[in-house]
Amino acid sequence: MPSKNLTREIEVDITSKHVINDIDHGDNVRVRIIASDDNWIESDAIAQLKKTAELPGMKLAVGLPDLHPGKGQPIGAAFVTENIIYPHLVGSDIGCGMTLYEFKKSRRKLKFDKLEKQLRNFESIDEEVADCVDSPPDLSAFDFPNELNKKLGTVGGGNHFFECQSVHEIIDEAAFDCINVNKNSLFLLVHSGSRGLGQHILTQHVSQYGGAGIKDDSADQYLLKHNFANDWAVLNRQVIADKIERLVGSGLKNILDVSHNHVYPLSASECEALQLNTDQKYWIHRKGASPSNQGLVMIPGSRGSLSYLVKPVISSNGHSAISGFSLAHGAGRKWKRSDCKGRISHRFTVKELESTPLGSRVICENRNLLYEEAPQAYKNIDGVVSDLVDAGLITVIASFKPVISFKTTRK
DNA sequence: ATGTAC
């Protein structure tokens, strides 16, 4: 693969703006986009990244190769702040992420026609499964509404999905061997989050404090709720897998779980790697960005393309500070949701959209979602992954091919 | 993304 010019770096001087809340932000903020010149990124997303970088206490704003516009702040971005936390930069789906499993039942015994039929029953057991989760999170600890736990084990809408996959190509044999899975197995990738809970927490926070950030010495309540939502999201993905185990009659072995919407403190060595004053406290906000400092990461493409299992590069001075210890979380949208129906419905029939060029099947009874999540609505994952490779942030272990993608059986 | 908001 030819080496490309990477990292368009923009220095934004915000010294004269926004002196609020006793937070000194006299230093320049660094705004960085990790993308090659041939990776098209919407100008709105770059404008949102720069705008967000002007928030008080901001030290570093990184756009990953899947950067695209969001609601006010961009998606596919990581933000390092000093002594302040911004709940709206985490967003409403706190703890949203990816979990990868290996089906224990051998691939030969998993017939795809039968598997599809079994998975089509996924939502018919929503209630009974949610009601018998072994140790449901204690919502009363924060006065959260009891109904929230009824969503445990549900996928949700938007870009959420689960997908059965097979190994397409192993690029790094040694690293693949370390994962201790069979290359002939079927795999399950689950993408979901904290459903109504994260939404509730953000709404509650905004109604109490407005859109401003919180100084971290008074952020305990938010952080406790945020951590609760992260745990809830991890459990949600686990319960989704439990349902699939039950429907398919195969065990599932967990390989990795990675959240891409959260805020966490940076360690002392990470602060040092970013050349930040270690007397202060620094926070990494990730909005649609995977951590590069927590082990292996799965970067899925659209339902019509490959997903990549990658190993973050650990540089001599720790994990890669250049990207704010973060990676792309997916391909990134190319088209706005509202544009998809108009662009796609006259080109493809529903039947055509229910399978993909890679031969996989799509379970999505909701017409709008079928258009909004069509492969054409997303950028090419290969370019996103090669940008991360060329930036020295990852090495690729293996690629995975979709077999069955599940969105919803509800109209 | 959300048992949305118009």
Average pLDDT number: 90
Give the oligomeric state: single chain
* Helix amount: 25-40%
Major sheet, described briefly?
Answer: 8 strands, mixed
The number of strands is 20
Task: Annotate the secondary structure layout.
Layout: E1 8-12, E2 29-33, H1 43-53, E3 58-68, E4 75-82, E5 84-85, H2 87-90, E6 97-103, H3 112-119, H4 126-131, E7 161-170, H5 173-179, E8 186-192, H6 195-209, E9 214-215, H7 220-248, E10 252-259, E11 261-265, H8 268-273, E12 282-287, E13 289-291, E14 297-299, E15 307-312, E16 314-315, E17 318-319, E18 326-328, H9 337-344, H10 350-353, E19 361-364, H11 367-372, H12 381-390, E20 394-408
Parallel strand pairs: 2-3, 19-20
Antiparallel strand pairs: 1-2, 3-4, 4-12, 5-9, 6-8, 6-10, 7-8, 7-20, 11-12, 13-18, 14-15, 15-20, 16-17
Helix pairs in contact: 6-7
The chain binds one DNA strand of 6 nucleotides through residues 71, 91-93, 96, 147, 151, 156-160, 193, 195-196, 198-199.
Care to describe what's here?
Belongs to the RtcB family. GO terms for molecular function: ligase activity. It is an enzyme of class 6 (ligase). Keywords: GTP-binding, Ligase, Manganese, Metal-binding, Nucleotide-binding, RNA repair. By secondary structure, the chain is an alpha+beta fold. The protein has twelve helices and 20 strands. Strands 6, 7, 8, 10, 14, 15, 19 and 20 form an eight-stranded mixed beta sheet that branches. A six-stranded mixed beta sheet has the order 1-2-3-4-12-11, sandwiched between helices. A two-stranded antiparallel sheet has the order 5-9. Strand 3 (58-68) and strand 4 form a beta hairpin. Helix 6 runs antiparallel to helix 7. The longest helix has 29 residues, at 220-248. The chain is globular. It starts with 7 loop residues before the first strand and ends with a strand. Mean pLDDT is 90; it is low at 7-26. It binds one DNA strand of 6 nucleotides through residues 71, 91-93, 96, 147, 151, 156-160, 193, 195-196, 198-199.
